Recover the amino acids of this structure.
């Protein structure tokens, strides 16, 4: 099993039984998500920006406008902390103290730097689209040179990462189980809704087969995981 | 209208028509959420940690174990960036370039510091529980002195904040509307599931009235907003 080697930076200190460092645990949480929160420093001030991302092996990618302050700063080679979190439920215990949250999260560390070769950029943009939306590249018009130029892409090799999660019912103090207090979990998940066609949609254009995983009522994490597996599988 | 005054730190530079600085816009996004991503610096390294939070006026609160490295560092008075993000949908355009995300997010800046008076801490812990879970303090057993001691609470006055959001259909280049390409929005929301009673739940204890807002199928952001309004309203 391939693992990340924790140092003081990534080692899970609190409730360390919840910490995992193997690639499978880290990648599963990353591949189930679409939005990361990325922390970085400009002039001594910490910032954290939500952004869409994709993964290839141990390397993470994100992108945006070339006018973005975040990307312009990160392009120069900046240490970042890259966190993905899934909220899975509210854990209702018999004391306020033992209330908790069911979640899965990854904290990954590395140095961001720019991807500036246009061919490499284009290949990764296509991978990003396909990773989220299978078949989509065949439906949309191709990127223009101008669009590529206006897009800054940043990537980061994961130097260290840890995965944390909590699952299951509350853990109460022994004597509290006798209380007349409801306890349990109220689950939460990101759920896909029914697609809303663009008001300007050309007549006769149907919802594409490749996007049918995004069925109304589906869990977004499950759809994204399936799409990521599909992409990785098709390259083997 | 009360507004936050943006400086270079919080002013929305990209697509600045999406940026808002008034309290109503900032508070609406904060009150609809439960998990923030908080960025901070330890020894020159940026970190971003997901954590539950609550708000009172312009002040944000979060808490955790007194053994937490994040909280021990922040307790000393540390500049932080506090970000809350709601993912609302995937925006499918007719070109890869115009694909986008519907979202609401707030980025707030301030200096974190410890809340160390036990009476103040206790009052805020109670407020936190009631804000998320109305009536819950009447059901659970009271906190012990030991539990209070084991809990570190941190708060931050919002010095600056900006809200950003995107809503609605894709915006494509004029000539692309003629393409035979499906376009529109695939909505995403955090949805509440049916409560799962603790396997050790005492016989005869029913699901409490105060939590009935968390109905299976409800939007978490709507429930949290209603609970926050209820708390604020009951204090007026």
């Amino acid at each position: 099993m391939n693992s990340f080697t924790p140092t003081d930076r990534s080692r899970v200190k609190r409730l360390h039984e919840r910490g995992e460092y193997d690639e499978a645990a880290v990648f599963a949480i990353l591949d189930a998500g679409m939005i990361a929160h990325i922390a970085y420093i400009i002039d001594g001030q910490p910032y954290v920006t939500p952004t869409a991302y994709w993964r290839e092996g141990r390397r993470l990618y994100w992108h945006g406008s070339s006018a973005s302050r975040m990307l312009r700063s990160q392009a120069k080679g900046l240490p970042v902390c890259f966190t993905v979190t899934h909220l899975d439920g509210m854990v209702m215990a018999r004391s306020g103290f033992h209330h908790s949250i069911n979640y899965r999260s990854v904290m990954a560390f590395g140095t961001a730097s720019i991807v500036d070769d246009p061919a490499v950029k284009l290949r990764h943009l296509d991978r990003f689209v396909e990773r989220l939306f299978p078949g989509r590249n065949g439906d949309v018009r191709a990127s223009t040179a101008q669009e590529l130029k206006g897009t800054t892409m940043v990537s980061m090799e994961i130097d260290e990462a840890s995965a944390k999660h909590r699952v299951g019912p509350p853990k109460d103090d022994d004597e509290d189980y006798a209380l007349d207090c409801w306890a349990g979990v109220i689950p939460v998940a990101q759920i896909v809704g029914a697609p809303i066609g663009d008001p300007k949609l050309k007549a006769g254009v149907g919802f594409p087969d490749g996007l049918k995983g995004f069925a109304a009522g589906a869990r977004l994490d499950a759809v994204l995981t399936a799409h990521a597996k599909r992409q990785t599988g098709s390259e083997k």
Observations:
- The beta strands of chain A are 19-20, 35-42, 45-56, 59-65, 78-92, 100-114, 151-157, 160-166, 184-192, 196-197.
- The two ends of chain A are 19 Å apart (CA to CA).
